[in-house]
Amino acid sequence: MKNHLFAIVLIGLTLACSKPETTELTLIRKPYQQSAFGDSLTILWRTDQGEDAYVKYKSNEHDWKTVKGISRSTNVGNMEHEVVLKDLPHNSLFTYQIFNGDHEWKFKDEYTFQSQKTSSDSVFTFFAVGDIGEPIETGGTPDLLAHALKPALDQMDFGLLLGDIIYPDGKSEDYDKNLFTHFDKVFPFIPVYPVLGNHDWHEPDSNYTQEWKLPGNEHWYSFDYANVHFTALDTKNGEMHLYDEQLAWLENDLKSVSDKDWKIVYLHHNGNSCTYKEDYEAVVSLYPIFETYDVDLVLNGHAHTYERLNPMGAEGVVLESEIGDKVHYNAPEGFISITVGSGGKLRGVGSDPKVYTPDPENCRHENLVANAVHDWAYLQVAIEGKTLKGKAIATEDQSVLDEFEVVK
Predict the structure, then answer these.
(1) Which of 134, 149, 247, 250 has the smallest number of Cβ neighbours within 10 A?
(2) Residues 153-193 pLDDT 10s
């Protein structure tokens, strides 16, 4: 009997001292970069379970560094991991890996990031595109867009997403299958900064703000990159979210910028347009502010097409001095507005089957359109000091559909 008791105790002690078997983790969402401002960068990813998140990173000149982050449950039942890297030297290329505790054998893929330019740098490139969230099964082309962006990543520093990121109504449970899965060779390598579109407005504070880590209240915010000031707005369903509050913030934001060569505003809805969309009065009401504070470029989505307008002033009328060339603008007055709602959904295709016909009512704006191309496309913008160069690039064959240049 004593021998039996001894055996039972021994087995119990052995089990108690044994290391528990490691639980398998599944990587639900590959890493994506957010808030690449100043000398810091936030890296996020998701797994089905697990904690103990950390990132290892290094530049070519230094050894690996390890930074531990935080893990939290998400609104869709998986785990989000967030690691903030700080004190990054500017304008340097880094390699990084993500880990979760004992699972570092599992996620050892290597990714890269480029730390932010300094305020004195004046050469960089970004992309802008909207309406990318239509699923493939209903005629969307997020896969084509991601495929088109991938070979250009070495040339670009970040991206602007111009709203309608997730169809039909911006729910968190649709983000992975309709967005992150397609862009898993893009988002791990460059940060993106989105704005809300009307399709993203499904309880945004319970969905949209759970998916991104953006400045301010995340509905509207601004950031500086090199010699450019970027301002992001929330146009909600066209009337703008908390209009008076946002308007006051916008004016104060633009007024406070005095040391940048360029000011770029991006939002989802269009103002004046010759597309099939109406002219949204709330956006048009911002034109006097754009003119007063010398905004250079306004980017939007919403209309599922590409349309570049000639420079306008506070009244939304094309400036006569800028009607001529339509490609080369030398120290133009006013601001140039571009619709890039051609990222994944095109009027006349899939779930948007109505034939694309610009509304004659909206074409009452004389000399408004400099160029319009009805094709899937994204906009690539290169800043070279006091020269801005824009190209609309077709997602299907990477041909250049539109090209323009602005010199200050």
Answers:
(1) 247
(2) 999 999 999 999 999 999 999 999 999 999 999 999 999 99
Q: In CATH, what number is assigned to the domain containing residue 144?
A: 3.60.21.10
Of 41-45, 98-102, 314-318, least confident by mean pLDDT is 98-102
Going by C-alpha positions, the residue among 9, 47, 48, 17 that lies closest to residue 30 is 47
Written as six digits, the tokens of 175 are 């983000």
User: 207-222 burial string, b = 16+ CB within 10 Å, else e?
Assistant: bbbbbbbbeeebbbbb
Q: Nearest CA to 298 among 319, 272, 275, 323?
A: 272
Return d(Cα 27, Cα 46) in angstroms, integer.
6
* β 400-407/387-394 pair status: antiparallel
Same domain, 189 and 332: yes
339-365 pLDDT per residue, tens:
999 999 999 988 888 999 887 777 888
pTM of the predicted model as reported, rounded to 2 decimal places: 0.93
Strand partners, 381: 126, 390
Cis-peptide into 168, omega within 30 deg: yes
- Domains: count for the chain: 2
Q: Which domain holds residue 92?
A: 27-114
